[in-house]
Amino acid sequence: MERQSILASFGIPISPGSRPLNRNAQRRDTTGSLAGRSSTRYSVTALYSMAAEQDIEVEDDLAKAQKRLRDLKGRISAQSKKNFVLERDVRYLDSRIALLIANRMALDEKQEVESHFEESDQQVFAFPDHRKMNQYGNLFFLLQTEPRHIANLCRLVSLTEIDTLLQTVMFTLYGNQYESREEHLLLTMFQSVLSAQFETTNDFNSLLRANTPVSRMMTTYTRRGPGQGYLKAVLSERINSLIECKDLNLEINPLKVYEQMVKKIEEDNGSLPPELPRAVTPDVAAANADVQAIIAPRIKMLIDIANSFITTIIQSIEQVPYGIRWICKQIKSLTKRKYPDATEFMICTLIGGFFFLRFVNPAIVTPQTYMLVDGNPGKHPIRTLTLIAKMIQNLANKPSYSKEEFMMLLNPFIESNKQRINKFLLELCEVGDFYESLEMDQYVALSKKDLMLQITLNEIYNTHALLLQHLEVLAPSDKNHLRIILEEIGTAPAQVPRKENKIVELPLFSRWETPIQDIATALMSDNNVTQNDILYMETKSIFVQIIRSIPRVANKQNIDLAAVAEMAATAKDATLVRKGIKVKEMLRELEEAHVINRRDGYKLMTEEVAQELVHLGNLREKVNEEIKSLETVYKTICDHNNYLRSQLDSYKAYLLNVRQQDAKGGPGASVVKLGGKEKSQKIKVLGPYKFTHTNLEKDGIIVETSVPENRRQNIFFNITSPVPGTFIIALHYKGRDAPILEMDLKLDDLLEKQQDNILSLDLEYVQLNVSKLLQLLNKTFSKRKA
After folding, report:
1. Residues 382/389, Cβ–Cβ less than 8 Å
2. Which residues lie within the region annotated Disordered (predicted)?
3. DSSP H helix total and E strand total for the chain
4. Cα separation of 373 and 240, whole Å?
């Protein structure tokens, strides 16, 4: 197969052919590439180096660490997809729950809402129709390896359709988030999408800013594992140190500061002096000398905090995921092409619009949804984080103060940081391209016999339907491979119910590309590599594998290749024997071809094997460091999954309450249908369940308390549910029968508070966290009901 055909399949520029390998003229470096070689493209040498690194027959520390890393990356990719689906469900339910609370939802809408709680089977099944399975396998291989089709489709779908398509593209088709081939194909798709966006947008100021399928794609990309890992590593500590100061009020809006000031004066004195009216205009508030005196030190503190955030972000440039930096690079390149006269400042506003507006700032404003903090921050830290995010956004963009004139007070921060933030944004773009490595990855993919894709039935059917809907634009020619496959498959099946939406395994293959049976031979024909070069590299690779399998040899300072080959050939392990006999024969062939010399102890190959082993030792350390980093990412993603599930549990409990309230029956009874007949059912009172003040405080449910510390061990709460959706919380003191106070709570009231972003519930003596209280109620009472 010609390398040009592989590159052309996904629209990548073709680099010049590589020079022939000449062993006598040049020496290899430790990575196996030729020293001084002008092309940075993966060489055949690199292929064998990769084989030595990832030999599945070796069981040394590196191999075990690599297996752990692969498993961990797989779990992160799978969990990221589950979170994306849950986030969609929560977003949908957020938009519908207000109607439920207002009791303005029709029966069919309630059933639609309920369908979002159904769990699909997570087991992997075979596709029910073998012929269709092969057709879909061919279709999805084509879509994966020729990203232009998906790029075109993403521009054609509506905003209501994009999320479902993005789920398939980001988390299934290119779902292996740490595998270079899939990541690079996905970025190639982004290049096509961005190019078209620049081509069709006439107004520079609206580029990448409107809420379009393209902007949604860019935001979704940042939510994959590498992006989440970066946010956790870089922002978490900085945000947590800020929210610990829960009483630090840095409000600088003069009107709000004035309102807070007069409220405090009224509370302290019982009334307001005549010169301080309760309601004033923003201009009057801004002119008030006391308000100005309150705001002045807050401005300085906000600037100091924002500077610390900016410094942290700038210093983290090497931690920014490659894909995000590469997208920044494309934005810069496309801007220069479309707008040759664009200033450096204009280019940086577009890069900053992606990096800050769609990636960093959402995590600063709502750190709890990104699992950067434990629990919900208090109202003052939330406001401070919002102001910090606005300052950073104004720094990255041309600031507009038309809606919030008070933000002009922070202009010194903009002026002092503009140059260094622009320098950072331009340096983000300084990453290499991946086209050469993608070429090698495509060779490897075409040589694989077991390329599989795990995908749900609805993902298959939805993608199929969207492709058919836009087929005339995507594939106008009768000879287009996409059209040929789709016409053979026929009509797209309807979406199946959520419970029946099984995960199936599709074998991916191409009917138009000839599978590569011998990758080395294919590479030889395309790269002017000789048979002796291939033999040399394969011999070196096998020696590395043998030495990794024999620890006592690996620890030796001086390596005797002939002795190593003999040791393997006479070992008790059958695999080692096979490799030892093979490598002895290969040494003999190389010596006959005058490539190596036994008299100098195979000096050149010995040096290269030693260098490769040093590289692998360093690689083991890097793998272990990456495992440690990704374990934190995986924990964050799992915590986010638990948070999303608790949201769904809250909505599920409310829906149960709605159903039972709608049922016919007297007080204390509900009506259920059994076999089509109605039957009255007595509702059971649940509880009371006891919780101590200490435990609730420890779990973050009590966020503020006025109970003296020496009495807290004597305080406990009894929670009862007399009817579904209603709870009575009673605060007790040990030794007393009667409660100190009781509060009657409705589930929909709590949900409404959460909907309105009211974070705490006032119980006179204690303040309870609304979200965590909802989690506690769901966990306690749904378990008892079951």
Report:
1. no
2. 1-36
3. 31, 12
4. 6
pLDDT band for position 465 (cuts 50, 70, 90): very high
Question: What was the pLDDT predicted at 42?
Answer: 41
Whether 4 shows a pLDDT value over 50: the answer reads no
- Phi and psi based region of residue 582 (left: phi greater than 0; alpha: psi -120 to 50; beta: remaining): alpha
Q: Please state which of the ranges 67-71, 371-375, 569-573 shows the lowest mean pLDDT.
A: 371-375
Lookup: tokens for 552? 């006592």
Could you give the C-alpha distances from 231 to 79, 160, 317, in angstroms and in order? 17, 28, 12
DSSP H helical segments within 373-452, as ranges? Answer: 379-396, 411-428, 435-447
Distance linking the first and last C-alpha atoms of the chain: 61
Q: What is the pLDDT of residue 735?
A: 83
Query: What's the Rg (C-alpha) of the chain?
Result: 32
Helix (H, G, I), strand (E, B) or coil at 261: helix
Question: Is 468's pLDDT higher than 80?
Answer: yes
The domain locations on the chain are 223-426, 517-616, 684-780
pLDDT at 19 > cutoff 70: no
Yes or no: say if 80 and 223 are a contact pair by the CB < 8 Å rule.
yes
Tokens of 661: 């309230």
What one-letter code names the amino acid at 482? L
| Ordered DSSP codes for 651-718 | HHHHHHHHHHHHS---TTEEEEEETTEEEEEEPPPEEEEEEEHHHHHHTTSEEEE-S-GGGGGGEEEE
* Model pLDDT for residues 76-134, shown as the tens digit of each residue: 888 888 888 787 777 767 666 655 554 444 444 445 555 555 555 556 666 778 888 99
What is d(CA 778, CA 650) in angstroms, rounded to the nearest whole number?
Answer: 7
Average pLDDT for 237-252: 89
Q: Report the 10 Å Cβ neighbour count for 195.
A: 17
Q: At what angle do helices 531-549 and 574-592 cross, to 10 degrees?
A: 150
Q: Which of residues 732 and 532 earns the better pLDDT score?
A: 732
CB 323 within 8 Å of CB 338? no
Q: How far apart are CA 666 and CA 446, in angstroms?
A: 69
Q: Which helix (H) or strand (E) holds 742?
A: strand 741-746
Q: What are phi and psi of 66, to 5 degrees?
A: -65, -40
Three-state SS at 498: helix
Residue 508: how many other CB atoms lie within 10 Å: 20
How many Å separate Cα 550 from the centre of its chain? 40
In contact, 459 and 431? CB cutoff 8 Å: no
- Percent helix, percent strand, percent coil in the chain, to nearest 5: 65, 10, 30
Class of residue 734 by CB neighbours under 10 A (exposed 0-12, middle 13-18, buried 19+): exposed
Is the CATH code 1.10.506.10 the one for domain 223-426? yes
pLDDT for the residue numbered 108: 45
What is d(CA 203, CA 218) in angstroms, rounded to the nearest whole number? Answer: 20
pLDDT at residue 103 in the model: 45
Amino acid at 575: T
Cβ-contact 546, 583 below 8 angstroms? yes
3-state secondary structure 262-279: HHHHHHHHCCCCCCCCCC
Buried b (16+ CB within 10 A) or exposed e, 624-637: eeebeebeebbebb
Please list the residues that pair with 504 across neighbouring strands. Answer: 125, 455
| Average pLDDT of the residues in 719-742 | 85
Query: Please, are residues 590 and 550 in contact by the beta-carbon 8 Å criterion?
Result: no
Q: What is the pLDDT of residue 17?
A: 38
For every residue of 95-157, DSSP letters joined together read HHHHHHHTT---HHHHHHHHHTTPPPP-SEE--S-HHHHHHHHHHHHHHHH-THHHHHHHHHS
Better-predicted residue by pLDDT, 781 or 425: 425
Locate all alpha helices (DSSP H) within 593-672, ordered by sequence. 603-662
pTM over 0.85: no
Structure tokens at 93: 């339910």
Considering only residues 398 and 422, tell me which one the structure prediction assigns the higher pLDDT. Answer: 422
- C-alpha to C-alpha distance for 386 and 306, rounded to whole angstroms: 11
